[in-house]
Design the sequence.
C-alpha cells in the first residue's frame, strides 16, 4: 500500500453502470516523510475519507476486495485513514497535530 | 485509476478472436492538473468515449471487470467520462468549459 | 495495452513444461508517435506476429487470457498486429506505408 | 519480490473492517547491495518482523496469499525475514553481523 | 517477461510456512542488449537456474502459475533459462559463447 493525501474530487456522470454511486477521490502521493511527491491516483473511497486527510490505498486486484468495489472496474481503493505515521523514530504525521 | 485524454485510435484487423469488435483508443496521460505528461496507454472503450474527452481508465485485472472486456486479453479499459476535476479547491477541468 | 515493435527472438530449451511450444518475442517499446523508447518486454506470441511488425501487447493476468497462455507463467502476450495508429489527427504508423 | 528494511509503523483506527487486527509496517526499499533507495511501501506483516530488520515482501494479488491477508484489500505483505543476502560472491547483508 | 542474470542468493529461515523449501535467487535486470541495468528482483527458482545464467522471469499473479509457486505469496518466478537472445539480427547473448 502507499500513502496519499485526499486533494480532490472527480465527477463522472457517464460511466460503467457498476460504478454508479461510488465516490472517486484524487490522492496526491506522499513519500514516507509525509510530503507530496507530485504524483497522483484516483481511488474509490470505501471508508468515508475527507478532504485533506492522509490515507492508505491499495491498487490492482486488491482494490476490489471491499464491498463497494467488488467485481467493479476499479484499480484503486482507499481502505484506511491514517492517524499516525512514525518513521525512523519520528512522528512524521499525526492526524491530531497535522490533520 | 488514472486520467487520460482520448487522442487517437488504433486499427488492428489481425488479432485474438476474443477482441473482435472492441474499440481501441489511445489515451494521453494527464497529471492531476489535467495536463498531458507525454505518457500514453491504449485502452478498450467500454462506454463510448469521444476524441478529446478526458476519461478515467483502469488497468490490470480490473480492466476486465466490464461486459465488453470480461475474460479478454485486455489490460486497460475506459470506464468513465470525466465531467469535472477539482483539485485543491480549483476546477482543473470542466467538460462544459474545456471539453 | 502498450505498443511494441517485434525486434528479436529468444530461445530457451530448459523451461517450465507448460511453456513448451510457445514462441517468445522481444518487443521494443514504442511511444504514441510510434518511436522506440529504449525499453523492452519479452512476450508470448498468440497471433503469429512477424519481425519488424508493430503490435499491441497486454501484461499481467490479462496476458493469460488467450488459449496459448492460459494458466501459464507468462505475464506478457502479443494479441494484435497494428495496421494503423492515428494520434492527434496524424497517421503516426501505417503498416502498408511503414511496415 | 523486493527487499525492504522495516523503518516505521502506521496507525489507522478507521479502516475497512476486514483489515482489523493487521499490523502495517513502513518498508524502506533496498537495492541489491542492501542500501536504501529512498522509495517505500506500506506492507502488512504476516510473520512478526521487527523494526530495523531486512525483509522480503510481495505485492499485488500475491500479497493476499497468506492467512492474514486472504481476501483483504491489501497489496503488500512481508513474508520472509532475511538472514543473509549474497550478491556477486559478497555477503551484502548478514543479520548476525549487520542486523 | 523480462530478462535477468542470476547474481545472488537469499537465505530466510523465518518465513510464511507455504514458502518452505523454495529457492530465492537475486536477479540483476538486463536490457535487450543483455547488459545489466542496475535494477533487481528476487524470484523463486522453478527450474533449477544456476549462478550467472541469463533467465526469463514472470511477475505478478503469473508468477504463481507453476507447481512450486501455486497459491504462495510469491510475485516473481524464474521459468526459463535463456540459450540465445537475438535482437536486431545480432546475437546479443549465446549461452554456449557467453554463459
Sequence:
Amino acid at each position: 500500500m502507499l500513502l496519499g493525501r485526499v486533494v480532490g474530487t472527480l465527477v463522472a456522470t457517464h460511466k460503467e453502470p457498476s460504478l454508479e454511486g461510488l465516490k472517486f477521490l484524487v490522492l496526491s502521493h506522499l513519500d514516507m516523510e509525509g510530503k507530496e511527491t507530485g504524483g497522483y491516483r484516483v481511488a474509490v473511497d470505501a471508508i468515508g475519507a475527507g478532504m485533506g486527510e492522509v490515507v492508505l490505498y491499495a491498487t490492482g486486484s486488491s482494490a476490489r476486495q471491499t464491498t463497494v468495489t467488488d467485481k467493479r472496474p476499479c484499480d484503486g481503493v482507499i481502505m484506511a485513514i491514517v492517524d499516525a505515521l512514525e518513521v525512523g523514530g519520528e512522528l512524521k504525521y499525526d492526524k491530531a497535530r497535522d490533520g
User: Anything to note?
Assistant: The longest strand of chain E covers residues 2-11.
